[in-house]
Specification:
502 residues; alpha/beta; 11-stranded mixed beta sheet; 36% helix; PKS_NRPS_Biosynth_Enz
Length: 502
């Protein structure tokens, strides 16, 4: 009797282990997107238009950030000065509908704009994916956020009267609260984690969100990152390090590449196991087949990339996902446009993806940084969203400012190619379209995510086997929390219907 009981328990354990193994390898669907991107791209549709049309969203530093003339000097050796006056900026960061989230105006004033932005894009991502927030109350939904700049904290703690510091100041400034605030407002009970690996933070957040879904810690996850530039100190430091482009243009993989351009933005994706997304009939932008992270270790300097580490990571993610590197058609590169970083990354990509690749079968590489700048802790999520949108539309956007290939990159030998115009994304033989996303932190933490196009009829496409007769008119109920908000929703809906191709 005892033996039978133990065998029964063992059998149950083995069955559970088998199920866990299956879950760990199940693809993850991207079912919703919310974003704030330079160039006024405040929705997935607007971001795609910016990418598709090859728009350069870089501008001079606006007056509501800092007085650029007070800190600019073409001589980067000048103390306290930066030799660039450019960046990718988002609009109206001082605007926030606190009442919508049940936050008092006084408390809202203490909250870091980065925290406020993430609340907004989290709501919009859920809305975009058809996920009703009220139905998620008390659920084990997880929140994973990448962030590392704390300009607002510096402003609050050094530029104002300390007598004004109150009980709300600490929670408004703390980086950890950035994810926790989303969980609190929406009453999510899953993991709520903030990650700081510098420029790879948001893609590392996506990686840990996938791991949490595979481990059963959550059944739905919000993942992304944010970056807002309010003070010039980081720009001055990066300028002294020779990282920034003096002419304000990120020229990834080009012979004239002379540094990156700082940018700001926010992005959140809603993640769900593919089987659950298909069962629930969710719209699917793309599918995450695998993800991974590693560390450069000791190099010639803590900010110097390690090509071998990048190769190892890419090989590992492909192997775990059961994908041949030769099947990958596109890589959204970290592509900062630096003299050191670009050749190292291109060589690592070509070594792994170009090996045994047929002549003429190139892997296309590009970088969204040429459009919007380097969003730093939000850079990885910007790249991920770009690829998800590209897979949805089956088009590859142009890589801006690429005219003469960098002589240190052996493009032909590495079987790499940079797109200069909008291209149709060709099919992948008998396999789905596949792409990778790179994101590297300047302290050496590397992240890679492998994406696949959504299954047919799972991305909002109409199944042709059914004939659907539509009425000439529809009743479309609209709701909001105030008359002003209702009017804004009505105008947005009108604009969407006018511009939509559906």
């Amino acid at each position: 009797m005892v033996a039978k009981t133990e065998d029964s328990k063992l059998g149950s354990f083995n069955e559970s282990a088998s199920q866990d193994k299956k879950t760990e390898t199940e693809p993850i669907a991207i079912v919703g997107i919310g974003c704030r991107i330079p160039g006024g791209a405040n929705s997935p549709e607007a971001f795609w238009k910016l990418l598709r049309d090859g728009i350069d969203a870089i501008t001079e530093v606006p007056a509501d950030r800092w007085k650029v003339e007070s800190f600019y000097d073409p001589d980067k050796a000048k103390p306290g000065k930066t030799h660039t006056r450019w960046g990718g900026f988002i609009e109206k960061i001082d605007r926030f509908d606190a009442q919508f989230f049940g936050i008092s105006p006084r408390k809202a004033a203490r909250i870091d704009p980065q925290q406020r932005l993430l609340l907004e894009v989290a709501w919009e991502a859920l809305e975009d994916g058809g996920q009703v927030a009220e139905r998620l109350v008390g659920s084990n939904t997880g929140v994973f956020v990448g962030i590392y700049i704390h300009d607002y904290q510096n402003i609050q703690s050094s530029d104002r009267d300390r007598n004004l510091i109150d009980a709300q100041t600490a929670t408004g400034m703390a980086m950890s609260i950035t994810a926790n605030c989303i969980s609190y407002i929406f009453d999510f009970h899953g993991p709520s984690v903030v990650l700081d690996t510098a420029c790879s933070s948001s893609l590392v957040a996506v990686h840990f969100a996938c791991r949490s879904l595979w481990n059963g810690e959550c059944s739905l996850a919000l993942a992304g990152g944010v970056n807002v530039m309010l003070k010039p100190e980081w720009t001055i430091s990066f300028s002294k390090a020779g990282m920034l482009s003096p002419d304000g243009r990120c020229k990834s993989f080009d012979a004239q590449a002379n540094g990156f351009v700082r940018g700001e933005g926010a992005g959140i994706v809603v993640l769900k196991p593919l089987s659950a997304a298909l069962t629930d009939g969710d719209p699917i932008y793309a599918v995450i087949r695998g993800s991974g992270i590693n560390q450069d270790g000791r190099t010639n300097g803590i900010t110097v990339p390690n090509g071998k580490a990048q190769e190892t990571l890419l090989q590992k993610v492909c192997r775990q996902a059961g994908v041949s590197p030769q099947q990958i058609q596109y890589v959204e590169a970290h592509g900062t446009g630096t003299a050191v970083g670009d050749p190292i990354e291109a060589n690592a990509l070509g070594t792994v993806l170009g090996a045994n690749r047929d002549p003429g079968n190139y892997c296309v590489v590009g970088s969204v940084k040429t459009n919007i700048g380097h969003l730093e802790s939000a850079a990885g999520i910007a790249g991920l969203i770009k690829v998800a949108l590209s897979l949805k539309h089956r088009q590859i956007p142009p890589n801006l400012h690429f005219h003469t290939p960098n002589a240190k990159i052996r493009f032909e030998e590495l079987r790499l190619r940079v797109p200069q115009t909008l291209e149709t994304w060709p099919d992948n033989g008998n396999s789905p379209r596949l792409a990778g996303v790179n994101s590297f932190g300047f302290g050496g933490t590397n992240a890679h995510v492998l994406l696949e196009e959504a299954p047919q009829n799972a991305a909002g496409e109409i199944n042709q086997q059914y004939t659907i007769e539509y009425p000439k008119s529809f009743l479309l109920p609209l709701s909001a929390k105030s008359p002003e908000a209702l009017k804004a929703v009505a105008l947005l809906t009108r604009d969407f219907l006018i511009n939509s191709s559906c």
